[in-house]
Write a structure and sequence with these properties.
Length: 410
Amino acid sequence: MSDDDIRRSVDAVWRIEGSRIVATLARVVGDVGFAEDLAQEAIAEALEQWPDAGVPRNAGAWLTAVAKRRAIDGWRRQERLDDRYQMIARDLSEVAEEEWEPVRDDVLKLVFVACHPVLKRDAQVALTLRVVGGLSTEELARLFLTTVPTIQQRIVRAKKTLSAARVPYEAPEPAQWPERLNGVLGVIYLIFTEGYSATSGDTWMRRELAAEALRLGRVLSALVPSEPEVHGLVALMELQSSRFAARVGADGRPVLLADQDRRRWDRGQISRGLATLDHVDTLGRGRGPYALQAAIAACHARATSVDATDWAQIVIIYEALEELTRNPVVTLNKVVAVSMAASADDALHLLDTEVDTKKLASSHLVPSVRGELLAQLGRTEEARSELRRAVELTANGDQRRVLEEKIAAL
């Protein structure tokens, strides 16, 4: 095999097995940062040895065994082989590579550690994609439109923060479970929404980032199969992802929902999303915020056109979501649904009386929606003014061009 073949093989093994390798090591050494460093050293050794020796039959076991030996050697060099380390070293030495079988709970613990509230949100996202998603620093740099050194520093700081805070490698206590799981879901959804509608850069969306979020969501749903909101998030991401092919035209320009060719929507993903949403209901614990958003996406997925969409039902779902989240973006989305279910005049009144515009002062969303509604009401000059304001607040190049085209059309 060529060096390129070996590197692709290593990348594939890491993407598939990386989280379980790090989880297994973290269970042994008790430190996620140290475990990830050991795993990377094993990857480096694989790149050196596999071109001559070939890819092992059980590559994940090989990498885990090498990383364990590195841990033992490091402890010996540091003359720290006390009773505790002697016990760990003996246990590691006695485990054959063929016996390597990561415990599902180990990966779940890894997810909770990577999303620990002691970390800032950008660090949670980077560390989650790194140690759970298996992305390289080069891939992360491309995804976040930044440099490799910046990503490396972010991950190193995250590891140091976890170590300084003495964050244990364990799942949260039962009383902490809802809050911590919500944090994990929030990180995964943040990754997805950035992929679905990029906040900066020159592209309308970043499908590879959204795909990573969906993959993480599927992993988490397998780890905690009885948690309805995990399945709700997966359903939402499946349904939203189904539109990707139709959201960009042949010229690479964004295509808004009203103009999309629904024949290009991925029916397989829609079926999976609807089935997952049905599974949420079978759990019998009601729909949370993610499942409610999935229900809204399901209304779009089932409709043959914008006009055939059950907008009245969408308004009702948004009202329920609004009560649960108290999120001004949810209220703004309800405004858009009201414009379709009732009238632009009703929607504009709702925007002016119910949307907390102060919380969205730095966002392009409010002037964008107000501009659309004013245009529908024939108040062209006011609409132009609002849309120009939205352009000023937009950091994404494609979104800015869409708004500029609307201004030109007026």
